[in-house]
Amino acid sequence: MGFADLLDEVGGFGRFQMIHVTLLSIPGLLMASQNLLNNFTAGVPEHHCRIPNITAALNESTAALLRAFIPLDSSLTPSRCSRYTDAQWHLITDRPSHTNASDLQTEACAEGWTYDKTEFISSIVSEWDLVCTLRPLKQMSQTIYMGGVLTGAIIFGGLSDRFGRKGMLIWSYFQLAVLGTFTALSPSYVVYCVFRFLTGMSVSGVILNAVSLKVEWIPTKARTLVGTISSFFFTFGQMILAGVAYSLKDWRKIHVAVCLPFFAFFIYSWWYSESARWLVLNGRSEEALKHLHRVAKINGKPEMTEKITLEVLESHMQKEVQSSKSIHTVFDLLKTPTMRKISMCLMVVWFSTSFAYYGLAMDLQKFGVNIYLMQIIFGAVDFPAKLVALLMLSFLGRRITQGTCLLMSASVIFANIFVPKDMQITRTALAVLGKGFTSASFTCIYLFTGELYPTVIRQTGMGFVSTMARIGSMAAPAVLILDEILPALPSIVYGGSAVLAGLIAFLLPETLDIPLPDTIEDVEEKSLKEQTQSESVALQDIKQSGGTCEESKSSGLHPLSETSAQLN
Questions:
Q1: Which keywords are on file for this protein (predicted)?
Q2: Residue whose C-alpha is closest to residue 306's, from 22, 10, 1, 530
Q3: What tens digit of pLDDT does each residue of 365-399 get?
Q4: Which of 348, 350, 375, 353 is nearest to 362 (CA)?
Q5: SS3 sequence, 369-424?
Q6: 216: phi then psi, degrees, rounded to nearest 5
Q7: pLDDT digits (tens, 9 = 90+) for 237-273
Q8: Helix or strand or coil: residue 194?
Q9: What is the pLDDT averaged over residues 88-92?
Q10: Given a cut of 80, is residue 134 above it in pLDDT?
Q11: Residue that wins the pLDDT comparison between 2 and 549
Q12: Rounded-to-integer distance, Cα 378 and Cα 386, Å
C-alpha cells in the first residue's frame, strides 16, 4: 500500500487536501436541489375546473359562487376533476333544496383548470395540466430523471476509469450547467423530460467522480471525517432548496437558480489535480509525479519534490502497475469470491437505502404541513443524524454503522404503521426520524463503497452498485400506488427492504483505518488473510479445549464434573 505512504510524506491531510475537498464539496449544496427538485417544480396547487366567463370574476369574497359550478367531493371540498353540466344557482343559498346535489349531472373539465397561486405561482403541473387523468405524468417526470441518473452511473463509472476522474467531472459540470439551464426553456412536457433525463446523467457524473477524487487524494485516517463533512453540504443544500423555491415559486426560475452556478464550478474545476493513483495505474507516472510535487509544495513540503522521484513513485506502486496492465470490466466485480460477495451485498444495501430515502422524501405534500417548512425540517434532521453517524463510523466501524442505520430506519417506518392518521404530528415526526436514519445510511454507504473497491476498478464498481440506488429511487414513487390495496402496504415494503439490507450489511468486511486497496488481488489477499487468522484462532481454541480435557482425564474428572465440583 505504497501510495498511502507517499501521501503522508507530502503532507497527509494538508492545505491542498483542505482546498481540494472544499471545492469538490461546494457543488454538493445544489446536488440536493437536483434530486428533490420535483417536490417544488412539480408541486400540485389547489385547482378546480375552469368556468368560462365566470371564473375570472370570482374573488375570495365571492368564492361561494363556485358552489353553482363545482360539485363537492366526499371530503366536502370542491372537486378537482369535474363540474356541473349546467349552472346550479340554487346551491349558492343556504336554504335547503329539494334537489339532491349528488344526483346532478357532471362532466369533465373540458376548458381546463383554474389553479391557486398561493403556494406555487407556476409548476409543470399547472403549466401542462398534469392533473386528473394526466396525474401519473407528474411522477413520471421524476422517474425519467432518475432513469437519467441510472444511465449516468453506468456510463460515467466506466468512462472515468478509462479517461480519468478530472476530465469526466469537468464535463459533468458543463453538461449539468447547460442542459439544466435549458430545461427552464422547455416548450412542452416531452422536451422537459428529455432535458431532465440528460441532466440526471450529469448528476451521476458529478457525484461519482467527486467522491473518487476526494477518496484518492486523502490519507486513510481522514476518510471518515471528510466523507461525513462532505455529506453535510448535501444536507445544507436541502435547506437552501426550500429557500430558493419559496422565494421564486416558479418552476422555470427555480431551474435556472439551481443550475446556473454549475458554470462557476465548471470554471474552477480546472484547478483540480487528477488522481495520481489513477495516472500511475494507467501508465502516466510522469504526470502523477508532477501532481505529487504540486501537492507537496502547496502543503509546505517543497523538500519532498527532490526525494520523491519517478523511480520512488513506481517502486511504491510496482505491484499495482503490474496488475493494471490487464483491462478491467464490470464482470471483474463478480469473478473472484470476495469481490462477488462485496458486490452482491452492496447492490442490496444501495437499493434499499435509496428506496426508503426517496419513499420518504419525494412526496412532502402528503404530510399536510407547509411544503417549504417540511423541506427545511427534512434537511435539518440530517445534521444530528450524520453527527451520530460520524461518531459511529469512527469508533464502531463502517459495517456496524451501515447495518444499524438501516435497521433503525426500518423500525421507525414500521412504527408509523400503527400511528392513527389523525395524529399527524406524530406521523410526521416519525417520518422525519426515519429520513434521518436513511440519510445517515447514505453517508456511510458512499464512504464504505469507495473503501471496499480497489483503485483499478473503483469507479466501475461505484457505478455498478449505485445503479441499484437509481433503480430504488425509480421504484419508490411507484410503490405509493399500493396504498389503494392496503394503506400500510407501502410502509411494509419500504421497511421490509431496509431490514433485509441491514442484515446483509453485516456480511461486508470492515474497512475502518485500513488503507485503500489498489488491485483486485489486494482485496482477495486481505480476505484470505482474515480467513486464515480466524481459522488459526478457532484451531487454537480447540487445542486449548483439548488440553483442558486431557488435564481433566488425568485427574479422573470429566470437565463438567470438575465444574460442578467447583460450584459445590
A1: Membrane, Transmembrane, Transmembrane helix
A2: 10
A3: 666 678 888 888 888 888 888 888 888 888 888 99
A4: 375
A5: CCHHHHHHHHHHCHHHHHHHHHHHHHHCCHHHHHHHHHHHHHHHHHHHHCCCCCCH
A6: -85, 0
A7: 888 998 999 998 899 999 999 999 999 999 988 888 8
A8: helix
A9: 69
A10: yes
A11: 2
A12: 13
Q: From 200, 194, 183, 215, select the one nearest 148 (Cα to Cα).
A: 200
CA distances from 218 to 4, 42, 545 (A): 9, 40, 46
**438 CB-near residues (< 8 Å, 6+ apart):** 353, 356, 357, 360, 405, 406, 409, 498
* Identity of the amino acid at 522: D
Residue 271 host element (H or E): none
- Residue 406 reports pLDDT greater than 90: yes
pTM metric for this prediction? 0.74
72 in helix, strand or coil? strand
The span from the CA of 462 to the CA of 470, in Å, is 12
Strands 83-84 and 106-107, bridge-based pairing: antiparallel
Measured on CA atoms in the order 84, 89, 93, 98, is the torsion positive or negative?
negative
Contact 349, 310 (CB under 8 A): no
The length of the chain is: 568
Assigned C-alpha cell, 430: 416519525
Match 414513487 to its residue by C-alpha cell. 477
HEC letters along 347-369: HHHHHHHHHHHHHHHCCHHHHCC
Residue-wise DSSP of 443-470: HHHHHHHHHHS-GGGHHHHHHHHHHHHH
Residue 295 to residue 372: CA distance in whole angstroms: 43
| pLDDT-derived band at 533, boundaries 50, 70, 90 | low
Residue with cell 366567463: 53
- Report which secondary-structure segment, H or E, holds 263: helix 262-268
Crossing angle (nearest 10°) for helices 285-298 and 15-25? 100
